[in-house]
Each structure stands twice: as C-alpha cells, then as structure tokens.
Amino acid sequence: MVETGSPSETETSPPRKRFPWPGGLSARLLLFTLVVVAFGGLLILPPALASYEEQWLLDRVRAGELASTIAESDPELRVSDAVANQMFDQAGAVTVAVQVDGARRLVLPPKQPFENTPYLVDLRRQNPGSWLAAPFFTLTSPKGSMVRVMAEPRYRKAEFVEVVLPDAPLKAKLVGQLWQLAGVTLFVASLAGLLVYAFLNIFLVRPMQRITRAMEAFRGDPDDPAARLVPSNRRDEIGRAELELDRMQADLLAALASKARLAALGEAVAKINHDLRNMLTSAQMASDRLAALGDPKVAQALPRLERALDRAITLASDVMAYGKSKEPAPVVRPTALRPALDMAAEDAGLTAKGVALETVIDPREQVLADPDQLHRILTNLLRNAREAIEGAPDRGGKGKVFVELRRVDGASVLRLSDDGPGVPERARANLFQPFVGSARRGGTGLGLAIARELAQGHGGDLVLIETGPGGSVFDLTLAGVPDPLPEPGGRADASAD
C-alpha cells in the first residue's frame, strides 16, 4: 500500500533564484547597509575631484602669474629661456599670457604650434554643473590634449592670467586621486556599514530571529512549554510583537484544546446518534403495528407518539448531515426568481388558505445564484416563517410572507417580511448558530445556519433586519445584478416585422 502525504506535509522544492541573493535577514541587512553607505560615499567623489582639479589648475595659473611679474623686468617683456624651462618643468606651462587694459600679451610664447586646439577652463565663472563635470571631461579627453586655463590674478593688476598646458599630468593626478578617494570611501563605507549592521542586528534582527524561532518551534509542537515565547520588557514595536505572539499562542492553545475535546465529543455523539437512529426506527415500526390494532385509546395517543418520533428522527438526521457534509461551491448562473420562490413556497408548506406568499417581483427578474442552493435558502426561510405563524396561538394558522427585490450597489437584496410573532429574545443572540439558534421548541437551529452559510458562499449574506410582535424581516443579499429575462414575443421580433 502506497501512502501519500497531505499537501501541507509534502515538501516542495523552493523556486530557483534568478539572481544570487542572500536568504537570511542579517546577510541582506549587511549587504543593503554596505550598498547604501557606499553610494553615499560615492556622492562625495564628483565634488572632491572637481575641487582637486580646480586647485591644481589654479596653482599652475599662479606660477604663470609670477612668471609674468619676472618678465616685466625684461626690456622685451618676456621671460628668459632658463626661466621658461624652469616653469615648464615645475608647472608644465607651455604658454603664459596676461591681459591688461584690454591688451593681451604673451609672456611665455609657445615654442611650436599646437597640434590640437586647447579646450577652455575658465576659473573666473563656473556654474555648479560645469564645475562638477570638469574632472570627468578631463578624464575622457583625447590623448595629447591641451587645456587653456583662465583665472583672475592675485599678485598683479590685470584682467586675467592665461596658461596653456598639457592635460596629461592633470589626468594622471585625477586618476590617482580617484583611486585614493574610492579606497577611502570604500573603507569608510565598510566601517560605517559594519557599525550600522551591528547596531541593527542587535536591536532588530536578533529579536526578530528569536520571534521566528519561537513561531517555528510552536508550529512544530504546540504542547511543548519551551516553544512558548517569553516576552521581553521592550516597549517598542518588537516588544509589542512579542506580547501579541504570546497572547496568540495562548489563544491558539486554548482553541486547540477545545477542538480536541470537541473532536472526541463528536466521535462519541456520532456513535450515540447512530445507535439512537436505529432505536427510533424500531420504535417507529412498533408504532405502526400499534396503529394497526384499532384500539381507540391507542389511536388517541398515537399521533403524539408519531410526532415525537418524527422530530427525534429528524433531529438525529440533521445532526449527522451537518457533522458530515461540507457545502459544495455554488455553480452560479442567472436564475429566474419568481419560479424559484413559488417552488420553495410549495416545499415549505405555504398555501393560500394558511400562510400565503405575496410578492410584487416581476416574473422576468433574475438573480445570480446556484438554483439548488437558492431553493434550500428560500425553503428554510419560508418554512421558518410558516412555523412561527402557525405556532402563534391567536393566529389560527393564517398569515402571509411578503417578498420584494431591490438592487443595491451591484447586489441583489431579497427582503422577506412575515407578520408572525417575531423572534424570541432568547434566540436572537445565537440566531445563526447551529443547535443553539432555534426559535421554536424541538428545533435544531440548523435551518438559518445553513441558509446563511449558503448565502455567504454566493458572496452575499443573510441578516435579520428587525423583529418584534408585528413580525420579522430578513435580508438575503446575493452578489451581482443580472439582466431580466426578455419579454414574451420580444420587441426584437416586433421590430423585425
């Protein structure tokens, strides 16, 4: 014999991950912290590189400016070859120019023409965007490019000082600075990430792991006292979660104990009920034999005996049916309401001479429902109304049940009103509870419980709107508003003629 486990017990393989991703909360928290802190550190790189490039270029401009002051002592207003070579070695300047009173003068002319036109960096006026983008433009410039730098003078009176120099040294310095800043950023990010991770792991992750382990242990063996979570004294969200979990475990243990007792009681009741039905069947057969004797005294007492036996057999059958059956899912489709009402009224014992059914519902109206389950709902409601009216001593078994249909918020609401004595006060609190909600003596209380269960299976509900000496009003709500049936000999046929 091959045994198969239930779906809940069958181990299913976890879905394959498209990307590698740590499974634990601690690892994810560490990775996330490192990424966020590293990203924050990377935001510092552009302004740091821009500031470094600006200072590097400004130092070369100041060297050119000093060269221009030396040139003023020369009759030809030019620096000597020795000074020019020294400036090139120290500052890397190829050309130095100064503009005074609108006249631009070369202090250090180029020794040979430029192969490429130098790109301009004007340090006098830079907006934040161009300032931040300047180092990246330098890093991506073609090999052998020249940079033309203009800045305001510091050591002499002039409109600006201009220096032309190759950007290769600057590019090399920027690359070195970039690696240095990246290393510092990575170190700071790692250190800060580890500190943040340690803090969050102590105050958040470890308490959550403790709660998770307690839940897993409780799920594995609820009866194990060690599986119960002992709440801490924290007053934050973690403490509240621990407290609520402890309360939930206590409530669940009580529910499980009650369920176990009810299961044991149900097995005992099922066995007793089975034997009781056999006894009642034997008693009913005996009553049939008594009826055949023709004794007047027996004939006088026999109806009461038969009614008692019928109620007892019905009670036993209802208990067995309610305990064993599970209502199937409704097969919903448009269902004509008036024929369903007439059929349910007939099965519920409503007649024109006794308790009558009255309605103003158009015969073409439909509701979305399972026809069989709708019949059971309506039959239960109409039968309860008839029995309540017939049980009133001053009514003589006569009364009416009025039914109307309304459409409310995309739902069909069927209102059933009777003129009976109303639901007794003792039965209202548990009206829809099986075995305890009966409003009449000898009833099982299953009728309304089953009717409401069926209505909720349709996506609706069954509720008591009002009750009193003038009667009771129930609302049966069914989801959906289907179109009415077409009129007999439809308009479409008439228009075709």
Shape, per Cα inertia axes: elongated
The helicity comes to 40-55%
Question: Which structural class should the secondary elements be placed in?
Answer: alpha+beta
The total number of structural domains is: 3
Give the strand order of the largest sheet, numbering strands 1, 2, ... along the chain: 2-1-5-4-3
Strand coverage percent: 15-25%
Which blocks of ≥5 consecutive residues have pLDDT under 50? 1-12, 17-21, 492-497
Please report the total strand number as a whole number: 12
Mean pLDDT: 77
GO molecular function, one term: phosphorelay sensor kinase activity
Protein name: histidine kinase
Organism: Caulobacter segnis (strain ATCC 21756 / DSM 7131 / JCM 7823 / NBRC 15250 / LMG 17158 / TK0059) (Mycoplana segnis)
Enzyme class: transferase
Account of the protein in words:
This protein is of the alpha+beta class. It has 3 domains: 25-190, no CATH class; 241-323; 333-479, Heat Shock Protein 90. It contains 12 helices and 12 strands. The chain has a 5-stranded mixed sheet. A 5-stranded mixed sheet has the order 7-9-10-12-11. β4 (146-151) and β5 form a beta hairpin. α1 runs antiparallel to α5 (168-220) and α2 runs antiparallel to α3. The protein is elongated. The relative contact order is 0.06. The model is unreliable at 1-12, 17-21 and 492-497 (pLDDT under 50). One of its GO terms (cellular component) is plasma membrane. The chain crosses the membrane at residues 25-49, 178-205. InterPro entries: 2C_sensor_his_kinase, HAMP_dom, HATPase_C_sf, HATPase_dom, His_kinase_dom, HisK_dim/P_dom, HisK_dim/P_sf, Sig_transdc_His_kin-like_C. It is found in: Cell membrane. This is histidine kinase.
